[in-house]
Amino acid sequence: MNSSYDFLVVGAGIAGLRAVCELGRHGSVLCLAKQALTESNTQYAQGGIAVALAADDSPALHLADTIAAGAGLVNDAAARILCDEGPRRVRELMDWGVQFDRDERGELAFTREGAHCRSRVLHADGDSTGREMARALYAYAARMPNVTFAAHGFCRNLLVQDGRVVGVELLLEDGSVQKITARAVLLATGGMGMVFANTTNPDTATGDGPALAARAGAELEDMEFVQFHPTALYLKNAPRFLISEAVRGEGAYLLNAKGERFMPDAHPMAELAPRDVVARAIHRQVMASGTTDAAVYLDVRHLDAAHLRARFPRIAETCRKYGIELGRDLIPIRPAAHYAMGGIRTDLDGRTTLPGLYAAGEAACTGLHGANRLASNSLLEGLVYGARAAQAMAADNAPVALTDAANPTRKSTDAAIATVVCEGVTGKHNGLEAVTALRQQAREVMESRVGMERSSSGLSEAIRRLEEIHRQLPAMDTHAAAEARNIVECGLAIARSALARQESRGSHWRSDYPATDDAHFRRHSLLKADKIRLA
Ligand code: SIN
């Protein structure tokens, strides 16, 4: 690894990889993955990629559904770009080797998902769409001579010089720190599901991008809007494994503890209502049941079991591991944190509010999802906006010469402090235990106070607790400590933004302000340091 590249891409999910495929034609590129290159949210994306390619579909219909799902807050220009440029980007991907599933006539097979007026979701290997797309993008990028991939490259801070981002500070596995400069830096770090105790996201989704950007002085946008996926597997001692919305697209029902369907009473689209509506209806059933059991079940017993196993091999295999046979058994589910609509504020070309810094994919916020993302729009966002951000970066010609003034956004402590005594958490113990305990406390606070149902008192209490946890985090140069800090800082940004939005809209539900208030809040929330404004 050199100490200087033309372009730095932090993250190797779909947005990062798509950007690398573009940037490799314009200069030298370093793409960093904080774990193995194959570990990102993209790898777990099941349902698929929404794109207007079917004969009965059009970008205009896709746009209308995206805007309707977003509960009055979609940035129309950003959503229009997504829907208009999507078909070209997906065709390009097929040219690069992505194999989407096809029907018996060899035509692309489109699935229906919630709040879509057409069957427009492409999938690959049944329920492994993200993995197939990442495979092809990586294979394409890895053939480019200008491109270097680095696994286990954890970006601890951004380097800022004269108000411009000029590189990153890497924390290596041995605790040492390396500075790398670039003309332009892209944050494509993915999601922040790990900020909550219950999430469908993998361990990597610790909100690194928004935390890094905010520490460097960039603005965050709409952080209060966190989507809870309605159907995560809910079993004691099992991870909150995602049961794709496409299962409901195939005709699955939701049943309450009495074995009754409740969605037909909640919304005209029943089980295929927008995601925030379904998640909230399930939440109400859970609250009404007063049980610690799932209380809500996905029922696929009336569907063809062989078809389900072929269509959803990964889901079938995971369910079987926990004694649930698709087609025979009810699947216990509850909502779990899944996707951040908010993130680092960008324009339509991935530019953040800091020169030299770009963002794309889930880490970014163009406003295209508004207050609630339409199912399967996120892989498409990564493709379309990863490419756009890369084009803007290629045109960004600012020369970079690192001087002593280039400061990481936090003073580095001595490398590799092996143990730190942290009092006031669980007594005296080594730093890793303290970090683990504090991180878990923060995630529980977020789940109970900043989750699906929010109130002024709960949010204020969460902010107080998170600030306390932030103060207690040991200053250690380890990935675990840096990730814990990112989790707490993202949690604080979400809680502060949620407190300021005194209304309910899309995924943001306030029990003390249950109505939507267009007159005051049909605006985006912008957060810089801990100051919020609406615009
Ligand atoms: C799913 O398969 O239900 C998840 C897809 C998405 O979040 O868009």
Account of the protein in words:
By secondary structure, the chain is of the alpha+beta class. Among the domains are: 228-336, Succinate dehydrogenase/fumarate reductase flavoprotein, catalytic domain (Flavocytochrome C3, Chain A, domain 1, Alpha-Beta Complex), CATH 3.90.700.10; 411-534, Up-down Bundle (Methane Monooxygenase Hydroxylase, Chain G, domain 1). It has helices at 14-23, 59-69, 76-95, 129-142, 208-216, 245-249, 263-266, 275-289, 305-311, 313-321, 378-394, 431-449, 456-472, 479-500, 518-521, and strands spanning 4-10, 29-32, 49-50, 110-111, 121-122, 147-150, 154-161, 164-171, 177-187, 220-221, 226-233, 253-255, 296-299, 331-340, 343-345, 357-359, 364-365, 407-408, 525-528, 531-534. Strand 19 and strand 20 (531-534) form a beta hairpin. The model is unreliable at 410-429 (pLDDT under 50). Succinic acid binds next to helix 6. Succinic acid binds at residues 46-47, 244-246, 339, 375-376, 378.
